[in-house]
Amino acid sequence: MGSKHHAPSKSFSSKFLSFRCSTILTLFMLFTSFFLFLSPLRHIREHIFFAEQSRFNGDLRDAKFPWNKLCFGPTFEKLKLAVFSKTWPVGAAPGGMERHASTLYHALAARGHEVHVFTVPSDRKPHHDLHEDNLHVYFAANDHGSVNISLAFDIFHKVDANGAFDYVHTESVSLPYWRAKLVPNVAVTWHGIWYEIMHSKLFQELLSNPDGKLPGPMIDLKEAMPKLIDEIRFFRSYKQHICISKSAGEDLVNVYQLPPRNVHVILNGVDEAAFMKDPVAGLRFRRKYGVPANVSIVMGVAGRLVRDKGHPLLFEAFSSIANQHPGLFLLVAGSGPWGRRYSQLGPNVKVLGALEPSELSNFYNALDVFVNPTLRPQGLDLTLIEAMHCGKPVLTPNYPSIVGTVVVDEGFGYTFSPNVKSLLEALESVIRDGSDVLQRKGMACKEYALSMFTAIKMASAYERFFLCMKNTIFCQYPLPTDC
């Protein structure tokens, strides 16, 4: 009797366990797939929230990371700032330096600070000074269209006489070091230092003369070291130094031997309202410029089409890989001598010419991946972070200024050494991953860009920096008003 009663129970138990195991296995597979799908975003969140987990508390001048990682609260103290900038964006297709300056100083003026910029128009033509609420732009050009520093200083002193400036800021050497010595409160933002430029010249020499058979080394490479020594010597003429990449900050401390408390990292930001994910605009852009509907991957490159931007590298690599993968398509935005050469590559390449700033976001949205083949490991290229804001992964060289600041996770895209073989391997990885993986990486890029590379984050960091330099109370973090 006992065996008759236990047999059904054993059978039921066996079926139940079988059902339970299969259910658990199915759920496990679903969660695993979901986990893998979101793994790039998981890595981003780890990076984004790491600062919160090990929250900084202390003097901002001791921070060893970009100030953009912190969240600064509102301030009621207003500043009067003087700015020296090489150029100011006027007309179509301004460069990255001009766009950075315009974004930063418009944002600071919008926060209630009085900003006076001494500069020249980017188109090198005569223009009236600009006065927009708190932002005042004075054009002081010499006969060649560059800044006439004597004239700029005359205007500077007149404005200063009507109320002293709280701080003076110069974009790179727009305010020469022999003038900077005469200014009591001055800070400089370096968009590229000679130590990085030396690496640029090295990469260009290796690419153009890989076997050393041509006469060389190039003259610029020979002169690089003396120029570096001169730069290290005059950098001390500036009191405070802002770097736009983490690696540059480390170089100023370790190579240029500047006091760590005088070196700060504030990353560039772009207007997140101007660069945002918009698939419809991307499709419209593709149709406008005749991108075939049956292509598998659309790549894009933007900027000046000149040698040091890496176009010989991309030209050779794409020429090789396009024959093996006919579904690959390349959009080239910009002007320069390499535009004509790209147009000779056939139907898989479309040269767009220089785009209006208003078209750039649509251009990024038309891509599956953005390529920046630059041979200049210096500064922080705005095109990378603009593309990331539009939800696009990036393909870029593995320079310290990039992998230490922008592509800090493999979930953001692909990196390569600045040679054709390495770029080809990276392109093969892009093709192998396909559009689905590229979309996931693009969303990870967008999330990271919003956490680090916005105009608001950049402006609030600069605002706090100038306040800190004026009054050390603002050097403490967090203040009661901070996030």
Give the name of the CATH architecture of the largest domain: 3-Layer(aba) Sandwich
Q: Termini, distance in Å?
A: 73 Å
How many structural domains can be distinguished in the coordinates?
Answer: 2
CATH topology of the largest domain: Rossmann fold
Number of contiguous helices: 15
- The overall pLDDT average reads 87
The strand order across the widest sheet is 4-5-3-2-6-7-8-9
Taken as a percent bin, the fraction of beta residues is 5-15%
Record field, number of beta strands: 16
- Assembly level: single chain
Q: Helices and strands: which structural class?
A: alpha/beta
Instruction: Indicate the overall shape.
Output: globular
Largest sheet: 8 strands, mixed
Radius of gyration: 26 Å
In the CATH hierarchy, what is the class of the largest domain? Answer: Alpha Beta
The helix content, as a percent range, equals: 40-55%
Unreliable segments of 5+ consecutive residues: 1-53
CATH superfamily of the largest domain: Glycogen Phosphorylase B
